[in-house]
UniProtKB/TrEMBL annotation:
This is Preprotein translocase subunit YidC. The keyword Signal does not apply. Keywords: Cell membrane, Chaperone, Membrane, Protein transport, Transmembrane, Transmembrane helix, Transport. It comes from Candidatus Vampirococcus lugosii. Its main location: membrane.
Length: 265
């Protein structure tokens, strides 16, 4: 086996496969419950970096007045503007990429679960247990056939694609998550480095467009993938919304109150 493939298999695919099989054994081979519990466990493990990522984005918003002050002060000296901006970001320990890096930690998990569910959806007979850890062999799941697994959940066939309702729910939740995030931050105003090209467009307007665009993309993705993947996306997005709401409930209340007053006026 290719060394890179082997590393991805052992570090990403295998742990997720084993955790899913463990939940299947505990919860009477119910795939829907197993995917939900697997998602929650993983999100709890990644809770600290996720909270840190949200806080990093908030710091970028808090720094906006200072960054704008630097832009105004050094508007005739682009190099000095860029230097002072980076100095502020380093001093405060903030940066637009740090929050993104926190989110990227979750990508291997999604990739691993994607391949696990896809493998199950392509299985016609006995499930391949060659990736099972030796201590889980005590579960006596050797010879388990995919037909024995309960792949029905809330009217969904988790190994099939084309579920419109699930796709709509995923899209709405993704849009809600992104909308909540924009209540807590605005796109960073970073000056251009000389020679880098045209000025950066209004990133706040770009973010509003991206919220809708991302929701539509995810709807299409969920529709085309096995519904088990869609169930994961719905569960992890719901977790994110709850986590964010709890973390910034006071800020969200203030922002929503302000938006309500503007709407009435």
């Amino acid at each position: 086996m290719n060394p890179i493939v082997l590393i991805v298999h052992d570090i990403i695919y295998r742990p997720i496969f084993n955790l899913l099989i463990l939940f299947l054994a505990i919860f009477d081979l119910n795939l829907g419950i197993s995917i939900i519990l697997l998602t929650i466990v993983i999100r709890l493990i990644l809770l600290k970096p996720a909270l840190a990522g949200n806080e990093m984005q908030k710091q970028m918003t808090d720094l906006q007045p200072k960054l704008k002050e630097i832009q105004e002060k050094y508007k005739d000296d682009q190099q000095k503007m860029a230097d002072e901006t980076m100095k502020i970001l380093k001093t405060k320990g903030a940066g637009p990429l740090k929050g993104c890096l926190m989110l990227l930690i979750q990508m291997p998990v999604f990739i691993g679960l994607f391949f696990v569910v896809r493998t199950l959806s392509e299985t016609e007979g006995i499930i391949d247990m060659s990736s099972l850890y030796s201590f889980l062999e005590l579960l006596n799941l050797g010879g388990l056939e995919i037909s024995q697994v309960n792949t029905q959940f809330l009217g969904l066939e988790l190994l099939n694609s084309g579920e419109i309702i699930l796709s709509l729910i995923a899209g709405i939740l993704i849009f809600t998550q992104m909308k909540l995030a924009t209540l807590n931050r605005q796109a960073p105003t970073i000056p251009n480095i000389p020679g880098a090209g045209a000025n950066i467009p209004d990133l706040n307007k770009v973010m509003k467009f991206m919220n809708i665009f991302l929701a539509l993309i995810m709807m299409s993705f969920v529709y085309s993938m096995p519904s088990g993947i869609g169930l994961y996306i719905v569960t992890t997005t719901t977790f994110s919304i709850i986590q964010f709401t709890i973390q910034y409930k006071e800020i969200i209340k203030i922002k929503l109150k302000s938006l309500t007053q503007k709407t009435k006026n």
